[in-house]
Design brief:
heterodimer; A: 253 residues; mainly alpha; 78% helix; B: 246 residues; alpha/beta; 9 helices
Chain lengths: 253, 246
């Protein structure tokens, strides 16, 4: 709690500097009715930000594995598919990809005879998940490669096929090395979800933008926005550290 | 006339430009025991790794009970679990208990039920003389015990032949004999075995054929009597004198 108390106190201190009359902290002053309403409006985007991030991260974790496995195969063409996907997706900036998915993908669907509209919610999730999957795939790769080759050889000599080797031997061992970096990647998704505001998703950043338009107080509102992300990320970081400790403890057994 | 279990004819292998195996010919009858020795880097491990297709060979043929083993994935898949392998580093699955290490192959690759697989696992654990360690994790066992678990894991697949790649080289000296004893018993029970090892005492007792390799070639090949009593080549004499000094 102390951690986000400090920036909040800083804001309060800054509000004391309003002698010149240029400050307008009143827009987010919880002691006034208007300020409290504004704060509630801003924080109400939190649910969407979290929901988008969680769904996108879940898809990315599955998609990343699907992308990573061909990269570990003995087949050169499968490995090539993996490389192309990772290099291609990794090189696309998030914003252009978001535009492409939101405005472009429905046209692609339509030309194929499907009438699938993409709303801001799913547009944001699809973009974040695909963009992130290239990174999760690389995390899986390093995790899988960190398991000694002897393990898959031993699995092979007791008759396990590639899928069984991954499922029962490699992944259970890789998972404890993969979890902390995957959780870190979740922080990246939370922050990048701010881009969803530009296609009209009602999340934290969008709420702040809308309030700025009506209140003309960008400094104060965006300051609070930053604090909102800070709090969110600090909570996740604490979770990641807890996870790392837990995994580390397992390793020593 | 015994049936031929494993036959290698003119097998060659390269790692890039490096010619690791040069015209390897080896014929192992069912129930025969072959010991391969030689200095490190001589290609002896690569021979056994080619036989169970952990490595691909580039020319020549390998037959297992008359069926040719090619590098084709279907051919590779067909022998997996048919030829057991015991590794220098044991390669037990550290996240699974001893029992689960043993039941994994039979359950997943042979479709045994859990109770059938466990029964088989306990049978082979008794055979390698550690019936009471089933519930432990591999890390809780000594090196010698781990290697015996690894042998039991191979046996659970009821393989047609068992390959050993320096099974005692990673063990502390006092644990070597407990592993060799188990291997000797297997040999007496008629298992077809190819053993890469420097344990010459074991070789003398067990081997039907001795193979000495150097620089990717089979330099000397014969019965243990001839091999130890009358080594033909200077390279082999030198190797034996070095290894038997201790």
């Amino acid at each position: 709690m102390k951690k986000f108390f400090v920036p909040l106190m800083l804001l309060v201190l800054l509000s004391g500097c309003s002698a010149s009359g240029n400050w307008g902290w009143y827009v987010i002053d919880p002691r006034t009715n208007g300020g409290w309403t504004n704060i509630k409006f801003l924080i109400s985007g939190m649910g969407s930000t979290i929901l988008i991030s969680v769904i996108a991260a879940t898809i990315s974790i599955v998609l990343g594995l699907i992308v990573a496995l061909p990269g570990q195969s003995g087949n050169r063409w499968l490995r090539l598919i993996n490389r192309i996907y990772v290099e291609f997706v990794r090189s696309i900036p998030l914003l252009p990809m978001l535009f492409w998915v939101f405005y472009g993908l429905p046209i692609v669907f339509k030309s194929m005879g499907f009438n699938i509209p993409i709303d801001p919610f799913w547009g944001a999730i699809i973009t974040l998940a695909i963009s992130d999957s290239a990174f999760t795939a690389e995390i899986y790769r390093s995790g899988i490669q960190s398991i000694a080759r002897g393990q898959s050889e031993a699995a092979q000599t007791i008759g396990l096929n590639y899928y069984q080797t991954m499922r029962y031997v490699i992944l259970p061992q890789a998972v404890r090395r993969i979890l902390p970096p995957l959780a870190n990647q979740f922080i990246y998704i939370v922050k990048m979800s701010a881009f969803a505001s530009v296609i009209g998703m009602q999340e934290l950043t969008r709420r702040a933008n809308e309030l700025v338009v009506t209140e003309y107080r960008p400094l104060e509102i965006y300051s609070l926005l930053i604090v909102e992300y800070l709090v969110l990320v600090l909570i996740i970081s604490a979770g990641v550290r807890w996870l790392e400790r837990k995994m580390g403890a397992d390793e020593r057994v | 006339m015994v049936e031929t279990a494993i036959e290698l004819v003119d097998v060659n292998k390269w790692f890039g430009d490096f010619h690791v195996l040069k015209d390897i010919n080896l014929k192992v009858g069912a129930g025969e025991k072959v010991v391969i020795c030689g200095p490190s880097g001589s290609g002896k491990s690569t021979v056994v790794r080619c036989i169970n297709k952990l490595e691909a060979h580039q020319s020549g043929t390998i037959h297992l009970y008359g069926a040719e083993l090619t590098n084709d994935p279907r051919s590779v898949a067909s022998i997996q679990g048919e030829i057991g392998m015991v590794f220098q580093q044991f390669n037990l699955f550290p996240h699974l208990s001893v029992l689960d290490n043993l039941t994994l192959g039979p359950m997943k690759a042979r479709d045994l039920t859990r109770s059938e697989a466990e029964e088989r696992a306990r049978h082979y654990l008794t055979r390698v003389r550690i019936p009471d360690q089933a519930a432990k994790m591999p890390k809780q066992l000594s090196g010698g015990q781990q290697q015996r678990v690894a042998i039991a894991r191979s046996l659970c697949m009821e393989p047609k032949a068992l390959l050993f790649d320096e099974p005692t080289s990673a063990l502390d000296p006092e644990m070597i004999s407990e592993v060799l004893d188990v291997m000797e018993e297997l040999a007496q029970d008629g298992m077809t075995m190819i053993v890469v090892t420097h344990e010459m005492g074991f070789a003398r007792k067990v081997a039907d054929q001795m193979v000495f390799m150097d620089e990717g070639e089979i330099v000397e090949h014969g019965t243990p009597e001839d091999f130890f009593g009358d080594p033909k080549t200077a390279r082999c004499q030198k190797f034996l004198s070095q290894i038997l000094q201790h």
